[in-house]
Amino acid sequence: MLHHKRQLLLFLIPLILMLAACSTVKPSLNAERPGDLAFRTDLKNELSSISVPVEATSDEVAKVLNKLVRKDLYKGSTKTKGLSADVVRNGPISVSAADNFLYFSVPVSLSLNYGMFDTPALPVVLKFRASARVSPDWQFVTEVRYLGLGNLFAEEVGIGPLSFKPRNIVDGLTLPLQQMLSDQINRNVNQIFPLRNRVAKAWEAAQKPILVEKNYSAWLKLSPREVTLFPLTAQNNKVSLSVGITTAVQLVVGPEPAAVPPLPLPPLKLVNSIDRNFRIALSAEIFYKDLVNAAAPVLLNKEFTSDGKSIVLKNFELYGNGDKFVIKVETQGALDGVLYLTGKPHFDTRTNVFSVEDVDFDLKTESLLLQSADWFLHSTIKSRIQEKLNLDLSKRMEQSRELAGKAIAQRQLLDHVILKGNIRALKFSDVLVQKDKISIQVYAEGESALVIQ
Q: 280 or 164, which is more confident?
C-alpha cells in the first residue's frame, strides 16, 4: 500500500508542477491587422447662388423710354374710310411700376384729316401697360397693351361737313400703336441693357481665385456651374431682375489654387425661384499624428485593469480605413501583444469638439481575445481611448468664420465688378476620413451679390 501511494505521489508531483507552470504563463497575442478599405475621395459639395441684381426705378425706365420712343407715333389711315390720323408725342412719358407690370402714360396730340379738311391738334394722354421677360437667348421681350385714354375730350369732332367720334378713332389705332411701341422698345432696350454682356463679365470674374487674407494665405475659390434667371418683378415703382450664378465656393488656405481653363457662359436657365443663400465651404484638417501626440501623455504607460488583471499601454497609432479609424495598441502586463480597435469620427456642432466615437475592438482582435483573454474585452481601455481622443476646434472655427466674413464683405473681382455680402451662420457639412488625416467641412452661410458698376 505504501508503495502504491509513493508511486501515485511521484506521478502527481510533475503534473501539479506542470499545471502550476501553465497557470503563470501570460497570454501573448498579435492580432491580425484589419483589411484595407477604400476611402471616399470628395467632400459633400454645397452649392451657392450669387445674385447679380439688375434694378431700375420707374423714373430711370421713363428716362430710357423717352429716349427710345420717337415723336411721330403714327401717321396713316383709320378704320373710317377717307379719314387719316396723325399721332405725335408732345411731352415726356411717365412710368409707374406695380403688380409686376409697367404702366406708362404717353401725352400725344391727335390730328384728323378728311380730304382737304383738318382738325386742330387734340391733346390726348394714351395709357399703356407693359410686361417684360427675358428669353433663353438673353433678349428682353416686352408686350404692350393699350389701356385707354387718360383724359376726357369731346364726344364728337367736326371736319368740314362731317362729324366723327375721336374716341372710336383712337381706339381703332391702338393695335398699330401697341405694335409700334413694342417693336421700338424691344429693338432698343437690348442695346441699352446688354444683359448677356453684363452677366458674362460676372461669370468671368467668378472663375478667378481671390486673395482674401495675405497673412493666412487664404483664397476664395469659386467654381460656377450654371446661370439662372428669376422672372422680372415690378413693385413700388422699382423694376428688378435677379440673375443667379450657381457655384461651389471654397476658402482655401495655402498656395494660390491652380488656374483652370475658363468655362464659357452657359445657356440661361429660367427658374421660378432663386436660392439666395451663399455658402462658403471651409475645411479643417486634423492629422492623426496630432491626435496621438495630444493623447499620448494621458494614455501611454498608464495602467488599465479588469478582473484583477492589469496591463500598461506602451504604444498606440491611429490611421484611417474606409469611413473609420483604426487604433493600433501595444500592451504589456497581464497581456502582451498588439491589438486593434476601430472608431468613428464625430463633430459636435454645438461645442465645436471633434471626437472619436463607438470605439470597440476590431472583429479579428475580439475573436482572438475570446479564445485566450476574454477578461480584456471588459477593460477600461476602450472608454479611456475614446475619452482622450478629443480636440476642441472652437478657435479654428472662429478663425474660419472671420475669414469667410472678410472674403465677401467687399471684394473687388474685376474692374467694376464687386462681390459683397454678409455671413449669418456657420454650419456643419461633412466629415471625410483619409489615410493620415480627417477633413471636417463646415460652411459659412449668408447672402451675397455681384454688383456691376
A: 280
Residues above pLDDT 70, as percent of the chain? 88
Q: What is the mean pLDDT of the chain?
A: 82
Tell me the mean pLDDT in the region 381-390.
89
In angstroms, the CA 102 to CA 65 distance is 11
- Which residue, among 441, 443, 445, 448, has the nearest Cα to 408 in the 3D structure? 448
At 295, list the grid cell: 493623447
CATH number at 137 reads: 3.15.10
- pLDDT score recorded for residue 20: 42
Q: Which residue has the higher pLDDT, 445 or 167?
A: 445
Characterise 314 by phi-psi region: left (phi > 0), alpha (psi -120 to 50), beta (else): alpha
Query: Is 274 among the domain residues?
Result: no
Q: Please check whether residue 252 lies inside any domain of the structure.
A: no
Kindly report the number of other CB atoms within 10 A of residue 308's CB atom.
7
Predicted TM-score of the model (pTM): 0.63
**Count of structural domains, the chain:** 1
Give the Cα separation of 371 and 348 in Å (integer). Answer: 38
In a domain, 187, yes or no: yes
Contacts of 314 (CB under 8 A, 6+ apart): 300, 301, 330, 331, 332
Q: Which of 41-55, 95-109, 285-299, 351-365 has the lowest mean pLDDT?
A: 41-55
Structural domain that includes position 117: 58-192
Answer whether residue 69 is part of any domain.
yes
Q: Is there a contact between 343 and 361 (Cβ–Cβ < 8 Å)?
A: no
